[in-house]
Write a structure and sequence with these properties.
With 291 residues, the chain is α/β, with parallel strands linked by helices. It folds into 2 domains: 30 residues; 258 residues, Alpha/Beta hydrolase fold, catalytic domain (Rossmann fold), CATH 3.40.50. It is 44% helix and 18% strand. It has an 8-stranded mixed beta sheet, with helices on both faces. Helix 3 crosses helix 4 and helix 6 packs across helix 7. The protein is globular.
Length: 291
């Protein structure tokens, strides 16, 4: 190979490298991107990691902070990639959170994990084109319990120097743990199967772990959207939370997801024609306009 051909090849490589670098630079500044596995506890731990889906960086975007379900013992953020893609397309920075699970830990450890993740987001999301004055929490099942708990009981965020006022809205997807004492007393078989591993059987702990019992003392209660299905456990849990919020004059909305199961009410979010998705988007739009 002569010197002229080598020079041409080198020039081609340089030009291609520049093109790629420019594209990456433009995407990182203005285009959609995903940042995976940020370890919010300061050490490598797949259970204390979060992913960020970023629609762009031409402005600061409102933030959805999502916590998965799984009876506090299974589940992973990777199961909710479609939500991240969907909400980023709709103009939200979507944060997808893992937390430690039972039986490796028990209450209150996983609640403090979620609070720590939220504190990291509040302090750092501006570096990822998010607006920390517009943070909305969303959780499914056990994740709904956890985002409600850290919003209604300020001790969790207080540990990290914050309070519930950073939460500008709550979206609860078919949670069954808003009143864990009631579950323990009224559904002993389900409690043994789904709750005992994470919470034990001490009634004082169960009460402390129940969001509903912290509402009377709460100085601030974020606007809450309660979505529920016809599963008796979650429907009763939602009704008890609705009654309590109503009794103290809190701001809330409800939606009965007719035809959905406990699984599909979350899994179908973002699918064309999904009514639950439309209800969530309307709620978020209202929060955006009022903030």
């Amino acid at each position: 190979m002569n010197l002229k051909i080598i020079s041409i090849l080198i020039l081609v490589v340089v030009i291609l490298s520049l093109i790629i670098a420019i594209r990456v630079f433009r995407e990182s500044r203005n285009g959609f991107r995903i940042v995976k596995n940020i370890y919010y506890a300061g050490k490598v731990d797949k259970y204390r990691a979060l992913d960020i889906y970023i629609p762009g960086c031409d402005k600061k975007y409102p933030v959805i902070f999502f916590v998965h379900g799984g009876a506090w013992s299974v589940g992973d953020k990777s199961h909710h990639t479609a939500k991240g893609l969907y909400f980023a397309k709709k103009g939200y920075v979507f944060v997808n959170v893992n937390y430690r699970l039972a039986p490796d830990v028990s209450y209150p450890d996983f609640a403090y994990d979620v609070a720590q993740a939220l504190s990291w987001v509040y302090n750092h999301i501006g570096e990822y084109c998010g607006d920390n004055q517009k943070i909305y929490l969303m959780g499914h099942s056990a994740g709904g319990h956890l985002v409600a708990l850290i919003s209604y009981d300020e001790k969790f965020l207080n540990k990290y120097g914050l309070d519930a006022s950073i939460v500008k809205g709550l979206i609860l997807l078919d949670g069954g743990g808003y009143d864990i004492v009631n579950v323990y007393e009224s559904y002993p078989v389900l409690y043994s199967l789904l709750f005992k591993k994470a919470f034990g059987e001490d009634l004082n702990i169960l009460r402390d772990a129940s969001p509903i019992y912290h509402l009377d003392e709460a100085e601030y209660i974020p606007p809450t959207l309660i979505i529920y299905t016809n599963w008796e456990l979650t429907q009763v849990s939602a009704e008890r939370l609705i009654d309590k919020l109503d009794s103290i004059g809190a701001s809330f909305e409800t939606f009965y997801a007719q035809g959905k199961t406990h699984d599909t009410v979350s899994r179908d979010i973002g699918k064309p024609g999904d009514e639950t998705t439309e209800i969530i988007l309307k709620f978020l739009k209202k929060l955006d306009e009022n903030s």
